[in-house]
Amino acid sequence: MFKKSLAIAALLAAGSALADPLYVSYDNFNYSGTVTRYASEADAIAKTNPISTASITTVSNDTRSTLTDARDGNLYVAKDASASYDADLAYFSTAWYFTTFPALGNGWGNPNNTNTGFVQFYDGSTTPTVTGGWSNSLTTFTVDVSGGDGDTGNYARLWAAPKTGGPSGDTSGVFRDFHLNLVADFAAAAVFNPTTGWYEADANPTALSGTATGIFENQSTTDASLNGFYAFDFSFAPGSWASANAATWGSGAYSPSAFFAAPAAAPVPEPGALALAGLAIAMLSLVRRQRRS
Question: Assuming Cys at both sites, which of 9, 19, 54, 199 could form a disulfide with 190, CB separation 3.0 to 4.6 Å?
Fold first, then answer.
């Protein structure tokens, strides 16, 4: 009985504080990092025999430049949220669509609107594994996406490094491996929405970190010499060119998408409470043994 009580306490201590259903729409962040090309998927997995490695660098479009050695990012993830928010979807891409010239069309003049440094993962199937949600304090939100090929509607793309520029057909293919993790901290606790039963935050995080890594098989429709396997390693940071330049989407003023929602985290007992529970179970076990003797 005493061993069983310890096992129960251990299981309680290992319980996750995260609730997996979630919804995230956020585009006021940037990503930086490297893309390494390999001849085979086996080499890309083992990270052996690289053909080339290129880092994301600052890109200019006329007088406008991206953030230093970075690109604006966009993240949209929904899991089990269709009743109140949206259908299941995992989407991570370059935020190319904002503009400082709305009359000329979305994306016009945006220095992020280039194949160089571009990424687009779009998967509406159930293939990706999505986990995350609010911390117990409702001030930290985590989202983790693993798997999926990002090939829904042939939207999968990744910079064919180190080539610069080129038509969109240069970068087309399938993600053979994909993993994304983002952690956002907020100044105030998320607010309960009685209609959905979820807790929501619609402000920019006060701190943000994360990564996106994986392997992309390029299957170019315009330049077969670019085909191969590209391993990417990106890091996230807060801030974007669109925010810094008061860019617009259509004719409206810039309004970054910052919305995080999930049910409350499953409560995890405090260490002191676990200790008391274990002690109580142990005492009950002792009493029962004394009664048998």
Answer: 199
Q: Do the beta carbons of residue 190 and residue 197 sit within 8 Å? A: no
Annotated domain spans of the chain: 1-16+268-293, 18-267
**How far is the C-alpha of 182 from the C-alpha of 219, rounded, in Å?**
28
- Phi/psi at 201 (5° precision): -135, 125
CA dihedral 211, 217, 220, 221 (to 10 degrees): -110
Q: Are 217 and 183 in contact (CB under 8 A)?
A: no
Residue with tokens 């890091």: 235
pTM score of the predicted model:
0.84
| Mean pLDDT per 10-residue section of the chain, whose length is 293 residues | 33 44 96 98 98 97 95 95 87 93 88 95 82 97 91 81 91 94 98 96 96 96 95 97 87 75 74 50 48 51
What secondary structure does DSSP assign to the chain, as a single string? -HHHHHHHHHHHHH-----S-EEEEEEEEEEEEEEEEESSHHHHHHT-S-SEEEE----EETTEEPSTT-EEEEEEEEES-TTTT--SEEEEEE----BS-GGG-TTTT-TT-SSTT-EEEEE-SS-SEEEEEE-TTSSEEEEEEE----BGGG--EE--TT--S--GGGS-EEEEEEEEEEEEE-SSPPEEETTTTEEEE-S--SEEEEEEEEEEEE--SS-GGG-EEEEEEEEEEE--HHHHTT-BBTTBPP---EEEEEPPPPP---HHHHHHHHHHHHHHHHHHHHHH-
Q: Which amino acid is at 4?
A: K
Distance, C-alpha 285 to centroid of its chain: 47
